[in-house]
């Protein structure tokens, strides 16, 4: 059953909130601190790479996609794929200024994502043990995100290994917006299981919740540096609901109405300066905040 989210969600929330225990709020949340302007500016090339994820695979491979490609003119594309329909576009290449492999996946519209993320039958499933060797079966992720990541996982891994070998770098940065942020977060678990001699950074934008408490804890305990940036009252990052067992990893940065970027420590920080406190329910959200702007970058090709 697919729940039309505006009508069914309040009922669903009130029906289930009473019977499902909410995950315990983490009490280790330290102070919320504003990012400096130089810290904010440092995200800009990654914001453009996330936005470029929306461009088709022909133009990203040629690095000829207009403003998005022109914003990172030094980029060396290595591989791209997807069809923008059944499979999200993706690209992999090398940024010589950042000295990093860049991995980016296409996202989707809030109007397409919200009905899926508020579906009462949304499913948490185990990761595939061939793709994710040794991963605990306690770790569960949303089925649709898992399918989208699995479809291209091996092509992305091959492209990352080729880029490392070609350019001699040992750093991999994974970016994405929306659905693309979710796919890239799964890459942030997947790629380090296969590439052991590199360091990894993840920067997501408008990230929905991808998995359960064990998933969030695994990401937090891993060596991957994780940042997920939420814009104002975007409802996507508060979905799927915590009452369904979904938890964000730490690393939230929340762009507030004032324009301040707040670093929100812990998982799902409940402060009103962070997305969970600012957007307590889906009807407090504004889907037009989903595409951005994130520091001046709108997520569109
Ligand atoms: C890719 O995008 C470019 C620029 O928008 C467009 O001209 C081209 O037709 C597209 N190609 C495919 C295969 O969709």
Automatic annotation (TrEMBL):
Residues covered by the Fungal lipase-type domain: 103-242
Pfam families in UniProt: Lipase_3
Secretion signal, residue range per the UniProt entry: 1-21
Gene3D superfamilies assigned: alpha/beta hydrolase
Record's keyword annotation contains Disulfide bond: yes
Keywords carried by this UniProt record: Disulfide bond, Signal
Highest taxon in the source lineage: Eukaryota
Record-linked InterPro entries: AB_hydrolase_fold (IPR029058), Fungal_lipase-type (IPR002921), Sec_MonoDiacylglyc_Lipase (IPR051218)
Catalytic activity line of the entry: a diacylglycerol + H2O = a monoacylglycerol + a fatty acid + H(+); a monoacylglycerol + H2O = glycerol + a fatty acid + H(+)
GO biological process: lipid metabolic process
Family (UniProt): Belongs to the AB hydrolase superfamily. Lipase family. Class 3 subfamily.
Protein name: Lipase
Native source species: Wolfiporia cocos (strain MD-104) (Brown rot fungus)
């Amino acid at each position: 059953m697919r729940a039309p989210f505006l009508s069914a969600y309040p009922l669903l929330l009130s029906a289930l909130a009473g019977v499902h225990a909410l995950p315990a709020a983490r009490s280790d949340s330290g102070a919320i601190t504003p990012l400096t302007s130089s810290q904010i500016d440092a995200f800009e090339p990654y914001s453009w790479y996330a936005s470029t994820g929306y461009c088709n695979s022909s133009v990203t491979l040629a690095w000829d996609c207009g403003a998005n490609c022109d914003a990172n003119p030094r980029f060396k594309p290595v591989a791209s794929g997807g069809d923008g329909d059944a499979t999200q576009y993706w690209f992999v290449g090398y940024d010589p200024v950042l000295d990093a492999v860049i991995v980016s996946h296409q996202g989707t519209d809030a109007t397409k994502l919200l009905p899926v993320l508020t579906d009462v039958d949304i499913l948490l499933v185990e990761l595939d043990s061939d793709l994710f060797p040794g991963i605990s079966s306690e770790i569960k992720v949303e089925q649709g995100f898992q399918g989208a990541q699995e479809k291209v996982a091996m092509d992305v891994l091959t492209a990352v290994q080729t880029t490392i070998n070609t350019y001699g770098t040992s750093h991999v940065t994974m970016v994405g917006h929306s659905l693309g942020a979710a796919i890239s977060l799964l890459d942030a678990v997947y790629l380090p299981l296969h590439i052991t001699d590199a360091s990894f950074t993840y920067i997501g934008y408008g990230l929905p919740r991808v998995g359960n408490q064990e998933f969030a804890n695994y990401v937090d305990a891993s060596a991957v540096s994780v940042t997920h940036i939420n814009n104002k009252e975007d409802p996507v990052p508060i979905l799927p609901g915590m009452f369904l067992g979904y938890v964000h990893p730490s690393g939230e940065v929340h762009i507030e109405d004032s324009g301040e970027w707040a670093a929100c420590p812990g998982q799902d920080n409940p402060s009103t300066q962070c997305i969970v406190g600012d957007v307590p329910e889906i009807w407090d959200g504004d889907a037009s905040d989903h595409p951005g702007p994130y520091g001046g970058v709108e997520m569109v090709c």
